[in-house]
C-alpha cells in the first residue's frame, strides 16, 4: 500500500512537470528543488545556505554558477527583479550538490532571504565609459537600502558581502539600515574589495614573471580610484620595486576597473573577474564560518585602523565573521602619501552613504 502511495505521488509529480498549467514555472522550479533537497536529506552532506541578490546580472550569473560548484554550499537562493526563472532552471541542471531555488521580484525577497548564512549582493547598475563609481550612487543606494532592510528582517545573523558600487558608500548605507533595525553586527558586514587584490596579484606577477598564485599583495583603503591603496612594500614574497615600477603598478591597480569599463565600450564593467573574486571571497567567509583557522583576506569594513569609521584592510575570518582586524603595518613614504589621499576621498563617500540612509 505504502509503495503504491509513493508511486502515485511520483507519477503526479512527473505529470505536473509534463503538463504545467500556464505561469507556474516558478513553483515548479521550487517544487523540483524541494524534491531534490528531500532526496539529499537522506544521504547528503551539510553545508551553508547562500543567497545571491542580483543573480541574473553580468556578475550574478557567473557568480551563481561558481557558487553552485562550491562544495560548502548546500542551498543556493537566486534572487533578482528579472530573469531568475531562466537562470535558476539552467544552473539547477548542474550535477553538483547545492540545491538551487529562484526568486523573482520584491514580493519574493523575504522568501529568498529567510534562513540564509551568507548573502552576496551584486545588484545594481554598472558604469559606462566616462562615469565614476560615485555616479552610480543615485540608483544603487536605493537598491542596497531595500535589500538591507530585507536582510535585517529575514536573516539578521547572515554574513553580508556587498559588491554593488560605490562600495565606499553602499557598505555605510547597509550599516545604517542594520543599525535602524537594531540588528547591526559590524563583524558580519563586508564590502568586497577582493577584485583589487586579484588584480594586484596578477599585475605584480606579470611584472616579476611569477605565477600569480605565488604573489599576495595587501590592498587597503576603499574601492574607487585613489582610495584603492596597494601596499607593495608588504608584498609576499618580499620584493623591492623601483619608483617607476611602484608608480606603474599602483596606477594600473587603481584603474583596473576603468580599464575594463573602457574595453567593454558601454556594455558594462568587470563581471567575469568579479565573479571569480566574489567566489574567492565568499569561499573564505564560508571557510571562516566552518571554523577553519588562518583565513585572512582584505575587505572594506567598520574599522578603527584609521580615524575613519570604515576602511579596507586585512581581516581574519571566523565563525562570527570578522574575528580580527590587522593594523596597516609599516608604510613607506609613497604609501603614506597615498593613504592621506585615500582617506580624504573616503571620508566624503562614507558620509554620503550615512546621510542617505539616515534620511
Ligand atoms: N565590488 C567590486 O569590486 C565590483 C566589481 C564589479 C562590479 N561591481 C558592481 O556590481 C554591480 C553589478 O554589476 P553587473 O555588471 O552585474 O550589473 P548588471 O546590470 O549586469 O546586473 C545587475 C543585476 O542587478 C539586478 N537588480 C537591479 N535592481 C535590483 C534589485 N532591487 N534587487 C535585486 N536585483 C536587482 C538587475 O536586474 C541585474 O540583473 C554594479 O554596481 C557594479 O558597479 C562591483
Ligand atoms: O570599475 C567598475 O565600475 C566596476 C568595479 O568596481 C571594478 O573595479 O571593476
Structural account:
The protein has 359 residues and is α/β, with parallel strands linked by helices. It folds into three domains: 1-39, no CATH class; 44-191, Rossmann fold, CATH 3.40.50.720; 194-358, Alpha-Beta Complex (L-2-Hydroxyisocaproate Dehydrogenase, Chain A, domain 2), CATH 3.90.110. It has twelve helices and eleven strands. The protein has helices at 2-18, 25-43, 60-68, 84-92, 109-113, 137-154, 167-181, 194-208, 243-254, 256-264, 272-290, 333-358; strands spanning 48-53, 73-80, 99-104, 118-121, 159-162, 189-191, 219-221, 228-230, 295-302, 310-318, 321-325. β10 and β11 (321-325) form a beta hairpin. Residues 15-45 have low confidence and may be disordered. The chain binds nicotinamide-adenine-dinucleotide and (2S)-2-hydroxybutanedioic acid. (2S)-2-hydroxybutanedioic acid (LMR) binds next to α10. (2S)-2-hydroxybutanedioic acid is lined by residues 126-127, 133, 165, 195, 256-257, 260-261, 269-270.
Amino acid at each position: 500500500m505504502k509503495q503504491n502511495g509513493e508511486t502515485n505521488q511520483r507519477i503526479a509529480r512527473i505529470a505536473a512537470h509534463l503538463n504545467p498549467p500556464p505561469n507556474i514555472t516558478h513553483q515548479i522550479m521550487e517544487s523540483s528543488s524541494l524534491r531534490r533537497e528531500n532526496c539529499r536529506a537522506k544521504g547528503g552532506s551539510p553545508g551553508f545556505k547562500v543567497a545571491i541578490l542580483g543573480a541574473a546580472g553580468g556578475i550574478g550569473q557567473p557568480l551563481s554558477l561558481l557558487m553552485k560548484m562550491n562544495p560548502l554550499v548546500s542551498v543556493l537562493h537566486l534572487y533578482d527583479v528579472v530573469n531568475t526563472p531562466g537562470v535558476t532552471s539552467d544552473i539547477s541542471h548542474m550535477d553538483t550538490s547545492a540545491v538551487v531555488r529562484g526568486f523573482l521580484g520584491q514580493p519574493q525577497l523575504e522568501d529568498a532571504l529567510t534562513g540564509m548564512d551568507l548573502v552576496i549582493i551584486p545588484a545594481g547598475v554598472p558604469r559606462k565609459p566616462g562615469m565614476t563609481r560615485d555616479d552610480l550612487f543615485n540608483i544603487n543606494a536605493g537598491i542596497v537600502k531595500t535589500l538591507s532592510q530585507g536582510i535585517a528582517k529575514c536573516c539578521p545573523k547572515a554574513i553580508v558581502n556587498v559588491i554593488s558600487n560605490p562600495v565606499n558608500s553602499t557598505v555605510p548605507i547597509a550599516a545604517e539600515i542594520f543599525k535602524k533595525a537594531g540588528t547591526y553586527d559590524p563583524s558580519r558586514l563586508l564590502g568586497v574589495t577582493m577584485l583589487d587584490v586579484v588584480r594586484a596579484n596578477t599585475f605584480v606577477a606579470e611584472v616579476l614573471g611569477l605565477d600569480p598564485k605565488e604573489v599576495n599583495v595587501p590592498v587597503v583603503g576603499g574601492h574607487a580610484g585613489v582610495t584603492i591603496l596597494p601596499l607593495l612594500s608588504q608584498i609576499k614574497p618580499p620584493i623591492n620595486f623601483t619608483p617607476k615600477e611602484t608608480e606603474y603598478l599602483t596606477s594600473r591597480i587603481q584603474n583596473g576597473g576603468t580599464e575594463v569599463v573602457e574595453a567593454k565600450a558601454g556594455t558594462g564593467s568587470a563581471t567575469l573577474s568579479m565573479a571569480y573574486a566574489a567566489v574567492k571571497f565568499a569561499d573564505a567567509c564560508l571557510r571562516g564560518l566552518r571554523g577553519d583557522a588562518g583565513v585572512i583576506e582584505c575587505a572594506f569594513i567598520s574599522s578603527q585602523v584609521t580615524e575613519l569609521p570604515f576602511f579596507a584592510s586585512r581581516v581574519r575570518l571566523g565563525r562570527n565573521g570578522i574575528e580580527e582586524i590587522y593594523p596597516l603595518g609599516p608604510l613607506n613614504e609613497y604609501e603614506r602619501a597615498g593613504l592621506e589621499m585615500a582617506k580624504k576621498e573616503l571620508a566624503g563617500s562614507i558620509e554620503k552613504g550615512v546621510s542617505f540612509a539616515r534620511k
